[in-house]
């Protein structure tokens, strides 16, 4: 049977009427199997925010009927990478489709949707009384506590500080999001919420832990998790682990996920996008086959290579230019929290002087050039897009003594020196906002005086009323910034089309 997959991400893909209709469908399916239906998460009948923090994956059969869904939650947890945790949430599958690929389709699409925004990985949690679910979670997620493999890996049966921090924050702040009984007791040594389901909003989820039909085929792991639970008490185990692309692809391949039609895992393994290594740098590759041998390297700004808008722009460049887009990590694996960068009042938390010292031109410049050389040797036509920090890197690649790209484009470049402007020797595009303390009026004027005399094609795109960072940030709450981001994207696309496709 062919299935149709729909992904509704963080309340942005549906209008109010469509949200209401979808919620009614999900409630109707869940009500067949969860009795009584709890008033939480996606099931809240009158909440206008039921989809706000959710990623909902819906599977329909060939006739459009609902076959199953998963409604996962993004939970804010301060003090960890990205300050966010993905929680597996609620899964419901119609009984007629439980022996079909629906479950694989649900979770592969959920996971790959999330990893598009967090390619280095994300902390992932699950809360369950169903023993087979506990076992399966440990098969796909790394560094899971509790799990049968944890003690062998860590040499202890106690959680790490990070595992414990996430669990404590969930216990302290997020019980309602996980439908945990207010009277449940949390055991910090085992991560069991004692009596979690033993209340009026949770009894529909209670299971018979002795029912082996609810166990995994892995009997030893099933017995391991059963030992945590009391019979008839409604206990649930909170599992905390880390979701990363490489591990999940291996696990899913073993489970036969790649044989499923419309599966994002198949697209990943078919080189839609993946994480590879080039010149000792981790690189996110977004493959596009329409123009073989054409590539664009994006050099990220302070937000780093995992920032969601960087990923979105990479998709646009790939689709609209028809080029493979590569986004290397030039911060050595270090990722600054995006929500901290976006909040000017919290910049002191970043210790930018120390961060910039670790990522100076002398440190990252050789890495950028080494990666560019490897890509230049691998592609017939090669362009570079640099944002902020990446601007000076793009200028180095396009310098007279290197000329490693066929063209470059930069948006609000940072730390650019006049000598780097003097040295340009390939077609260059500069996108400059009106207000930019990094690419100053002096540097703007200097660029417009010097570059036209260098004998190279030059495009200067000016954005009145906008400020530094607009082209990657696209803040809808700042007047004109989202529109400016779109204009900058379009300008870069036209530039790359001209110098990578039309002027070979």
TrEMBL record:
Pfam families: DLH (PF01738). GO terms for molecular function: hydrolase activity. InterPro entries: AB_hydrolase_fold, Dienelactn_hydro. Residues 293-498 form the Dienelactone hydrolase domain. This is Dienelactone hydrolase domain-containing protein.
């Amino acid at each position: 049977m062919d299935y149709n997959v729909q992904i509704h991400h963080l309340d942005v893909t549906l209008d109010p009427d469509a949200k209401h209709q979808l919620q009614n469908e999900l409630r109707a399916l869940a009500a067949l199997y969860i009795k009584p239906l709890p008033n939480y998460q996606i099931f809240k009948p009158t909440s206008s925010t039921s989809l706000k923090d959710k990623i909902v994956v819906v599977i329909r059969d060939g006739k459009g009927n609902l076959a199953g869904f998963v409604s996962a939650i993004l939970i804010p947890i301060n003090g960890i990478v990205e300050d966010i945790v993905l929680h597996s949430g609620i899964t419901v599958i119609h009984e007629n489709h439980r022996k079909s690929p629906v479950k694989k389709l649900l979770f592969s699409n959920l996971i790959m949707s999330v990893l598009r925004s967090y390619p280095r990985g994300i902390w992932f949690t699950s809360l369950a009384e169903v023993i087979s679910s506990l076992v399966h979670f440990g098969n796909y997620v790394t560094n899971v506590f509790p799990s049968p493999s944890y003690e062998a890996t860590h040499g202890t049966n106690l959680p790490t500080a990070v595992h414990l921090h996430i669990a404590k924050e969930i216990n302290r702040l997020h019980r309602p999001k996980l439908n945990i009984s207010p009277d449940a007791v949390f055991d910090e040594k085992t991560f069991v919420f004692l009596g979690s389901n033993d209340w009026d909003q949770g009894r529909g989820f209670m299971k018979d832990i002795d029912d082996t039909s609810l166990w995994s085929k892995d009997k030893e792991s099933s017995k391991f998790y059963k030992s945590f639970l009391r019979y008839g008490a409604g206990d649930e185990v909170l599992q905390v682990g880390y979701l990363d692309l490489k591990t999940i692809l291996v696990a899913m391949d073993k489970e036969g996920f790649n044989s499923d039609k419309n599966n994002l895992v198949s697209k990943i393994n078919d080189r839609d996008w993946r994480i590879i290594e080039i010149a000792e740098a981790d690189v996110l590759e977004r493959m596009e086959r329409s123009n073989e041998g054409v590539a664009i390297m994006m050099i990220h700004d302070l937000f780093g290579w995992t920032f969601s808008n960087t990923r979105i722009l990479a998709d646009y460049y790939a689709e609209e230019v028809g080029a493979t887009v590569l986004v290397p990590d030039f911060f050595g694996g270090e990722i600054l929290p995006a929500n901290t960068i976006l909040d000017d009042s919290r910049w002191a938390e970043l210790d930018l002087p120390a961060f910039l010292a670790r990522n100076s031109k002398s440190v990252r410049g050789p890495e950028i050039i080494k990666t560019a050389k490897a890509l230049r040797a691998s592609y017939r036509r090669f362009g570079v897009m640099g944002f902020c920090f990446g601007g000076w890197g793009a200028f180095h690649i396009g310098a007279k003594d290197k000329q490693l790209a066929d063209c470059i484009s930069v948006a609000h470049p940072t730390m650019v020196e006049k000598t780097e402007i003097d040295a340009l020797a390939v077609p260059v595009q500069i996108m400059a906002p009106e207000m930019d303390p990094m690419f100053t009026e002096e540097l703007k004027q200097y660029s417009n005086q010097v570059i036209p005399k260098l004998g190279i094609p030059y495009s200067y795109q000016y954005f009145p009323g906008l400020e530094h960072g607009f082209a990657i940030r696209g803040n809808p709450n700042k007047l004109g910034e989202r529109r400016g981001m779109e204009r900058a994207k379009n300008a870069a696309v036209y530039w790359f089309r001209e110098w990578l496709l039309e002027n070979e």
